[in-house]
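Example 3.
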Amino acid sequence: MQESDRLKSFHTAAQLLPERLWRAAYSLNEEQRAQCEELRVRLDRPLAATVAGRTVLLGEGILPQRAELEEVLARATEASVHSYLEQLRRGFLTTKHGHRLGICSHAPDGASRVLRGLSSVNIRVARQIGGLGGELTLCGPEGFRNTLILGAPGAGKTTLLRELCRRLSADMRVAVADERYEIAACADGAPRFHVGSCDVLSGGKKSETIPMLLRAMSPQILATDEITEEEDCRALLSCAGCGCGLLATAHGGGPEDLRRRPVYRQLLDSGVFRQAVIVTREKGVRSYRLTALSAEG
Amino acid sequence: MRFAGALLLMAAGWAAGAALTGGLRRKCAVLRELTAVLFRMAEELDQRETPLPQIFLREAERAPLLSAALRLAARQTAAGRPAGQALAPLCTALSKDEGLPQAAEAMTELSALLGAYDAETQARACRAAGQSIEDLRREQDRVLAEKGRLYRALAFSAGAILALLAL
């Protein structure tokens, strides 16, 4: 992603802010704006930006009010909360520019008709970084088929997954189950990120969309983000049983972290994933390590 | 010639009577359009959960009398303005330009709900507002029919008197 694209991306993210917060966001210099990853608006707390992994407080003395938080939501949804309610009930939404808004409010459960008590909004600035993982050499004849991408939150797992999808889709049928609109950030059916020639099914639960993609799109590789539930694992296992390659991400510092969690143990024991890419980030610099996964651990 | 002039005077009187009810007819037409817009909005929200900017834009094409205000509302909601603010010019136009304060009040109440609740709740509110505006239109239609007859009769009579005097 060119610096000008990053600045554009920051600009569209900052446009979600009400005027005085927008001005505060623009107190960042150009270099910081290009490196800005997040803008956090918290009730009665200063606006905070995450720039190259560090938190920068903005707008001295400016404390966001409830109406301003609601305005952020109105701007992100084009004043149409109803069109995004399914996403909001899961605590986030993706804007038409691909930015992801994390929302904290009072009990956004399935029964609620409105979001009450909005307390903080995290605008994750959409960034596509091309050429990622270039240093990764393909492991074995299968390349990146059946690869699990591991890393801490914010390490860059999804960014790498997106890049791999783009690369692999050049000569393979790649289907993406994009439950949280993070991989392709589709708006009105059009991906906002460059994911190559992937078939993207956005929004639905992975456990439902993975079988649908398998039946309808006959993918050679199926990619998905953030495996967190047992039913996701079951869907992936059934998918692998059909001869389809898998690409997925999960939170964790390494395979040993995954083995401690029952949800993943089953997946690892099955031997579906042959290798893991561990993404780490220090002082804003990402690094990748490829490691083989064995069913025995 | 005199007879023709007299006929013309009577016709002019009838036309003047009809013109006097022009304002009332416009009110009825505005209310009719507004009701149709609200019921269509309810359908759109219920069935497709369409975002408000798209709904307003579509309705601006279907409702010529409300077109300018709806286009403005579409632009403002697309920029993230809450529906309450985006529809304020429409409410002002209804109240001041069209002389329909009750319709403006119903729209103000509705606009506070639009975009902030789930689609079902908003659709219900649209139908309720549409119903109250439909009631208002019926009332205006009745007034129009009564006043229309009265104005036409009075103006026709005035024309006839003038015609008699001219003869």
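The mean pLDDT of chain B is 88. Chain B has one domain: 24-146.
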